[in-house]
Design brief:
By secondary structure, this protein is an all-alpha fold. It has helices at 6-9, 12-24, 26-32, 35-47, 50-57, 62-86, 90-109, 115-118, 123-146, 157-171, 179-188, 190-207, 220-233, 238-256, 259-262. The protein has one domain (6-262). α7 (90-109) runs antiparallel to α12 (190-207) and α11 (179-188) crosses α12 (190-207).
Length: 266
């Protein structure tokens, strides 16, 4: 997950760029900030465990919270476009999330792969976070469907990808997140970074091929787990984060073992 430190996102260059650019595109941005996209981004931020750490440690600043939510907003736009364009199944969503979020966003852009080398005592939790970070999007899309937030047509994949990559470049101005961290990660942990990059590439290619014409999986049990995980994720305590990580992994592994769930459309 992208733990928010004020030094990452309150640097003056980033704040000034956001302040200058956003008003110029207010009308266009307004069309994107609809109910589905806003709720989807918020669910991603919560279900991955950001509040359990940020609010517990006081890492959030007002500006930081906005910038972080915007990151998840751009990520949701991209995922929603891919799901709609490719008719992805649940397995495909997991594979793509592993590639784009667990490896690219948090592992490389945020430099968390370096933790395997710099903090060897935390290798287990670092690995569990990588796994959990591949699963949380399934619960987000399930809740959106159950809450009937499916009427807004997603952006074309090209436009959502441009927004996502453009925002990544914007955040790179901080030096604490983005391209500089990718370079640093390959310098500190070249072997692991290469391995994860390879796994992410294969996972992305496989995920993009996981199309499905089967209707979405309907289960009261999975809905109950989704709501339960959402409630746990809102608890501002590090202990809640551990519970969230373990439960997310266990629940998702259990349901992915079912072909009906694995092959069902997102």
């Amino acid at each position: 997950m992208v733990l928010v430190h004020s030094s990452i996102i309150t640097k003056r260059p980033v704040t000034r760029i956001v302040t200058i650019i956003l008003p110029c595109y207010a009308s266009r941005v307004g069309k994107l900030i609809n109910k589905r996209n806003s709720v989807g981004a918020l669910l991603l931020l919560i279900l991955v465990g950001e509040p359990t750490v940020g609010f517990a440690n006081g890492l959030y600043t007002p500006t930081g919270l906005i910038v972080l939510l915007a990151l998840y907003f751009s990520f949701f736009l991209l995922l929603d476009s891919l799901v709609d364009r490719l008719n992805l199944n649940n397995l495909g969503l997991v594979l793509i999330t592993f590639s784009l979020y667990a490896v690219f966003i948090t592992g490389l852009l945020h430099g968390e792969i370096k933790d395997y080398v710099l903090h060897t005592e935390n290798r287990l939790i670092t690995t569990l976070i990588r796994i959990q970070a591949s699963f949380f999007t399934i619960f987000t899309f399930h809740l959106l469907r159950k809450w009937r937030l499916n009427k807004t047509p997603p952006l074309p994949v090209g436009k959502s990808l441009a927004i996502f990559l453009g925002y990544i470049l914007l955040l790179s101005a901080s030096g604490k997140f983005g391209l500089a961290q990718i370079i640093s990660t390959f310098q500190v942990a070249p072997t692991l970074a290469t391995v994860f990059f390879g796994l992410a590439s294969v996972s992305l290619l496989l995920g993009l091929r996981q199309k499905s014409s089967i209707k979405p999986y309907g289960s009261r049990g999975f809905t109950s787990w989704s709501v339960g995980l959402l409630l746990v994720a809102l608890i501002p305590h590090l202990g809640a984060l551990l519970v969230l990580i373990v439960l997310t992994i266990c629940v998702c592994w259990f349901y992915l073992s079912k072909p009906a769930f694995r092959n069902a459309r997102v």
